[in-house]
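Aim 2, interim progress: modelling of the phosphoenolpyruvate-bound target.
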Amino acid sequence: MRKKIVAGNWKMNTTLQEGIALAKDLKAALAGKTVKCDVVVCTPFISVASVAKEVEGSIIGVGAEDCSAQEKGAYTGEVAANMIASTGAKYVILGHSERRQYHGENNALLIQKLQQALANGLTPIFCVGEVKEERESNTFKSVIEGQMAALYTLSAADFAKCVVAYEPVWAIGTGLTATSEQAQEVHAFIRKSIADHYDAKVAEETSILYGGSCKGSNAPELFAQPDIDGGLIGGAALKADTFMPIIEAWK
Ligand code: PEP
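Predicted structure of the complex, ligand included:
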């Protein structure tokens, strides 16, 4: 059975103090509850270590939002995967559309980042997704296949350590959500593509998350789709009150 996961992406929000307070709120909201999915928060670098300490011993997993493509050394401002792992964090988001758009991240770079993450025991949450024009021109499947190609450089054993997140760029932070049918169509397409590149077992065991204006009100319908294994959540992850209903959408 593949894992169900609800992961928050705090993006460039929360000071250190606000991040710790948010982690505390989430820990308190989850205390004593039985949840049916893994819960992850991916925080700005500045908060990763403190949030990891704050939630230690709880069910909450912690991740970063990016890592360097390099192992170590003279790369001012970069944060290496082994530094992230040294905080107790277990996840790293790679290839988020905002990194692709504002930092020109491409497959060549993302392959290096994937290798760094995996070499340091981090689970990559690898984002793929089309922009509005690509959806409208019906080229989105080839765009996604092109982005998945970075993952397909991995051995089946390494690929199996990754989580995929389908995030239609036109739905991120816009309030526009892909309909559950649109999301399911792409998730099924991704799963078939994985089966074609590896095999049916690897495809069956890969968690594929949906991201893009997911919230408590639409999560139940999205998560009811057979190929949607959870969500990568931006805006609604910034408050325990709005994140919890998404977690609880897994009944
Ligand atoms: C995201 O950036 O990963 C995301 C899904 O954002 P939002 O939920 O705010 O659309």
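Residues 9, 167, 172-173, 211-214, 232-236 surround phosphoenolpyruvate (CB under 6 Å). The mean pLDDT is 97.
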